[in-house]
Amino acid sequence: MSQILLALAGNQNSGKTTLFNALTGSNQHVGNFPGVTVEKKVGQLKAYKEASIVDLPGIYSLSPYTSEEIVTRDFILHEHPDVIVNIVDATNIERNLYLTMQLMELQVPMVIALNMMDEVINSGNHIDTEKLSKELSIPVVAISAAHKEGISDLVRTVKKVVKQNTAIEHLDFCKGEVHRALHAIAHIVEDHASDAKIPLRFAATKLVEGDVLMQEALHLHEDDLHIINDIVKSMEHALDTDREAALADMRYSYIEQICKDSVFKKQETYGQQRSEKIDRWLTHKYLGIPIFILIMLVIFYLTFVVFGGTMQTWMEEGIEIVTNQVSDWLDQAQVSSWLHALIIDGVFAGVGSVLSFLPIIVILFFFLSLLEDSGYMARVAFVMDKSLRKIGLSGKSFVPMLIGFGCSVPAIMSTRTLSSERDRKMTILLTPFMSCSAKLPIYGMITAAFFPNHTAWVLISIYSLGMVVAILSGLILKKTVFQGTSMPFVMELPSYRIPSLKNVFLHMWEKAKDFLHRAFTVIFVASILIWFLQSFDWQLHYLDDSATSILASFGNLLAKVFAPLGFGDWRAATALVSGISAKESVVSTLSVLSGGDTGLFIALQSMFTGLSAYAFLAFTLLYMPCIAALAATKRELGSWKEAIYTVMYQTACAYIVALLIYQIGSVFL
Amino acid sequence: MTTLDQIKPGNSGIITKVGGEGALRRRLLDMGLTPKTVVFVRKVAPMGDPMELYIRSYVLSIRKEDAAKIEIEVKQDVTNTACACRKSKQR
After folding, report:
1. Contact criterion met (CB < 8 Å) for A383 and B58
2. Count of A–B CB contacts within 8 Å?
3. Distance CA A106, CA A138 (A)
4. Hey, is A29 helix, strand or coil?
5. Could you tell me which chain B residue has the CA closest to the CA of A496?
6. Mutate to test the interface with B, among A293, A396, A490, A497 (most CBs of B within 10 A)
7. Chain B partners of A94 at a C-beta cutoff of 8 Å?
8. Domain containing residue A630
9. Over pLDDT 90: what percentage of chain A?
C-alpha cells in the first residue's frame, strides 16, 4: 500500500472516470464499498507512485439520501484522504461548485481540477482560474481530461498540497442569518464533533440542514437537539424559508457571486449548442422513440449476429479443439473413465458453454459503453421514462431489460449504471422474465412437436407472457418489497461527447474480467456439481446412463411437484434441473433421457399434451435463470441471500403461472 | 403564479418556491432549482412526460408530477439564450 491517499470526487458526467483513467492508466482495481453495491475503484498514480487514488461515486451533493452520497462522506470522514481532487466541469461550473462548497466543509486539503477548459475557451468564453482559486483559497488547475492536457500540472499541484498539508480554512461563504445559526450550533456541538472526529463546520452545516445521519453520529443529547432546533426555527423565521432551502440558497448565492467575478460567458459552449441540435432528432416528439428502437436493433444485430455470433462460433470451435486435445492427453495418460468424464463432460463442457458467451458480453458492453459515455443513455431514460413509471421504475431500467432479450448475464451486469439501489434490485429481479435467446431452442423443440402450424403465435404469446409477468411483478413488488420512495427522477442530460476509446476498452476489459472470474469460480463449481449429480447414483457408482443418477432421482421427486402443472414426468423435471446450468441443456437432457433425437419426438408426445407442453414452455420462460445469470445476480446484489430470494421469487412465479395455465386450461379444453 | 409543470415548452419562469419533501425536495434544491432562479422549459419527452429544463447553464429533466411542486412566476418575453427562439419556432 502506498502512503498517500487521494480521493477523486465530482459530479456525474464531469469527466471523472476519464481523469481517473488518465491518472492511473490501467493500473486499477475494482471492488465495492463495504455493505453497499456502490462501485469502488482504486488506482495508483502513474506520475506519483507513492499515491493511490480512490474514484468516489459521481454525486451532486452530500445529502443523506443516496448510498453514493453517504459512501462519499463516510469515506472522506473515516479514511482521511490526504487530498481531495475535486473535478469540476468548467462548462457547467455553477452546479459543479455546489458540491465543492460541501467538500470544503470537510476541511481536507483540496485541489480543484477544472475540466473541459479547452471547450470553454474554444467557445469564446473564459474562466479566470487564478481569481477563482483566490476566492476559494483552493488551488485550481485547468485541465482537459479527454485530451490529457494539464494532467502533469494537476499532479504537481497535488504533490505540493500533500507536502504543505494545508487544511481548508476559508469557509466564510455564509452570511447573515445562516451564518449566525451555523456558528451558534458549532458552538454547541464543538465537543461532540471533536469526539466523533468530524470537522466542526461540516457537522454544524449538516445539523442546520436537519441531517439525521449527522445527529446520530454526534450522539447529541435531547437538550442540545432542542436548542439546535430553536436556533434553526428562528433562522427559518427570519429568512422566511426552511432549513434545506436556506443552505442551498446560501451555497448557490455564493457561487453566483464568485462566478460573476471569474467566469465570463458570452454564449453556450459549442458542445452545448451541438447537443441541443442532436437532441432535436434524438428526443424528437415523434422520431425519438423510433430512433431509439432502431439503435437498439442495430446493436442487437451487430452483437448477436455479426460480431458476437461469429466470435461465439470461433470460441466454441476453439473450446472444442482444446477439449479434444485434453481428452486425447487424458486417454494417453489412461486416467479412469470417471476422471476423464469429470474433466471433459463436467468442467470443460460446463465452463466451456458459459465461456462461449464471452464474445457477446464483450461486444455488448462495447456498445453499452458507447451509449453511456456519449450521453445517449440519459436520453433513453428521458424518452422511455413514462413507460416504466407505472411499475415503479424509471426510464434508466429500459436498456437492461431490453438486453435481457439477448442474454440475462450482460443485462444484469449493466444494471450497475442505475443510480438508485432500489431500481437496480428491481431491474435485476425482473430482467430474466425477458425471454433470453438461449431459451429459443426449447421453444423450437416444443413448438415443432406440438404446435407446428402455430409457431409464430406460440412464440409471440410466450414473449408477451414474460413481459406481462414482469409488469404484474413490478406492480406487486412496488406495493410490497420495494415500497420505499424511489430515487427522484431529477436527471441531468449531459452534453453529448465523443466517447474515449480508452474508457470504452477499459470498461469492456473490466466486464470481461468480472465474467471470467465468475466462470472459473461459481460456474466452475456448479458445473462439477451438476455433472456429479448426473453421473453418479446414490451408491456413488459411476454411470453410463443418467436414467438412474442422483439427478434423475431428484427428477422423480420433482415430477410429483410438477404433476399439477401437467408435466409430472421425471425426464421433464430432470431436464428443467439441468437447464439451470444453461437453458439450452433442457433440450439436450430431454434428448439424452429419451434415447436420442429420434426417440425425442415420440417421448415428448408421451410426456406432454398440447396444454401441458404450453405450461412447460411458460415454466421454462419464467423459472430461475442459468448459473451464469445467477452468479451475475449475486455479484450485482452483493449478497447470496438476496440472490437466492430473487431466484426463489422467479421460480415461484413460474410455478404459479404454469399451474394457472394448466388448471384453467384443463377446464376449457 | 403557476407551477413549473404548467409552463409550455419555449417559455421561462422564475422559481418562487420549491415544495415536495425528503429526498425529492433536497435533490431539486441540490440540482440548482432554488428560489429566484430562472428556468427555461425546452421540451417534453415524446410520451408527454418528463420535461426538459434549461437551468444554470445546463440541461435537466424532471417529471411533471415533481415539477408541479415548484411554484413559478412566469416571465414574459424572456431572452434566455438563443434556443428559446429556435424552439418556439419549431412548435
Report:
1. no
2. 131
3. 13
4. strand
5. B59
6. A490
7. 32, 56-57
8. 516-668
9. 65
In terms of pLDDT, which residue wins out, A478 or A656?
A: A656
Does residue A434 fall inside a structural domain?
no
φ/ψ (deg, to 5) at A11: -70, 160
A240 & A182 share domain: yes
Pairing of strands A39-44, A51-55: antiparallel
> Are residues A562 and A610 located together in one domain of the fold?
yes
Nearest Cα of chain B lies from the Cα of A209 at a distance, in angstroms, of 10
Residue type at A159 in one-letter notation: K
| Mean residue pLDDT across chain B | 86
Beta strand segments in A500-647, E: none
Continuous H helices in A480-521: 501-519
Give the pLDDT band (50/70/90) at residue A338: confident
Q: What one-character DSSP code corresponds to residue A396?
A: G
What does the CA dihedral A58, A60, A65, A68 come to, rounded to 10 degrees?
10
C-alpha cell at A568: 409430472
The reply to whether A127 and A202 lie within a common domain is no
Dump pLDDT digits (tens) for B31-42: 999 999 999 999
With CA atoms as reference, the chain B residue closest to A271 would be: B58
Residues facing A54 on adjacent strands: A7, A42
Handedness of CA A271, A274, A280, A283 (dihedral sign): negative
CATH number at residue B37: 2.30.30.90
CA B77 to chain A, closest CA, distance in angstroms equals: 19
| CATH assignment at residue A202 | 1.10.287.1770
Same domain assignment for residues A125 and A203: no
Please say if the pLDDT value at position B78 is more than 70: no
Asked if residue A471 lies in contact with residue A507, where contact means CB atoms within 8 angstroms, the answer is no
